[in-house]
Amino acid sequence: MKAPAFAYAKPASLAEAFELLQNPNAKILAGGQSLIPALNMRLSSPDLLVDITGIPGLTGISVQGSFIKVGALTTHAQLETSETIRKHVPLLAQAVPHVAHAAIRNRGTLGGSLALADPAAEYPAVALALEAVFEIKNKTSERRVDASKFFKGLFETDLQPGEMLTAVEFPIARPADKSVFLELARRHGDYAIIGLAAHNGRFAFLGAGDRPVLFSFGKNLEKAKEALKTGLKPPADLYNSSATKLHLAGVLLERAWNTIRT
Amino acid sequence: MEHDQDITLTVNGSMVSRRVAPRQHLVDFLRDDLGLTGSHAGCEHGVCGACTVRVNGDIVRGCLMLAVQANGCKVETIEGLSDSKEIAVLQKAFHEKNALQCGFCTPGMLMAAQDLVRAKKKVTREEIRTHISGNYCRCTGYQSIVDAIEEVVNG
Hints:
CATH architecture of the largest domain in chain B: Roll
Distance between the termini of chain A: 50 Å
Radius of gyration of chain B: 16 Å
CATH architecture of the largest domain in chain A: 2-Layer Sandwich
Number of helices of chain B: 6
Shape of chain B: elongated
Number of domains of chain B: 2
Oligomer: heterodimer
CATH topology of the largest domain in chain A: Uridine Diphospho-n-acetylenolpyruvylglucosamine Reductase, domain 3
Distance between the termini of chain B: 54 Å
Strand content of chain A: 15-25%
Number of strands of chain A: 14
CATH superfamily of the largest domain in chain B: Beta-grasp domain
CATH topology of the largest domain in chain B: Ubiquitin-like (UB roll)
């Protein structure tokens, strides 16, 4: 359980970081709460870790017109205690306490979780339900990608070699908006068996496929349940069959429905 | 490529400078290089919580942070919290309530519990369980640990 050898660099600017990321076997180290376990278990063996936590401007929560912009290095704990997030992005605020445990939330970051794209993680489903926009930079340019186009598959995203996710924009919730985050896990903070991030008519399930799975349901619960039954094929895990997960997804849908649709 | 790095940090109030390999995590550094063996290395992938230490005032997993990342940080271990008597009341409650048997999880458990004590507000047993959900105990069944924390936090 000891990590393989690697080099470590802590750049002080984005330009310096992008220079280091030219190395094809370099990996970005943010909070490290998923990368370091992977290193300790030798599931990953990069030549170089580029610690981006010394780069100014990648942390913080700010109101920008109709969006809340959150820097990629903002930690779960910072999101959890942010009045701005609680008020303007209530779905994200509801999701944060489900992310692992307090000691991990103190170091893990929003950008790290989204860039990893673990299908059982909370934020990808939240970003998809809210139609968040991802700000991505490389050495020379900047581009913006919708959440619906960002998640490509199991731990796979639209991020290209040499690119970095630098911020995420979440639309500010309007007074009439309704959002619910629900998750079932064996123990608080464990990986979700199944979870649901719902915002108005957009229902994004986590732990239900190789990436967050989005449904847009109308006003009829019975029709929605039927659509879920035929449309969702959650993969079995060590403890739960696909059928169990599908059943539990239906349970979460019903629980969320009363809040969303009334 | 894999050059060792010089780091300087504060551990339990004392300044420490060492040369470390980038791949060494913080809890191995504390145990092997500084002899502070109170923080335990258990699962080494962030699940068990036995390695919980404080960095710049916040509890973190010692196995999920590299020693090089602690450069310039203020690190506090169970030895520091114990010597300063910060957790004396919790330690007494753990003892009296039988909240430990083998003791492997206890340093991490105390670190997590002290977080609740520092927040200075009343908590339910459910909130205590949620807060220590990242710390495994394989002996006690948690009841006595929750008893001890509840007594200290709620008075």
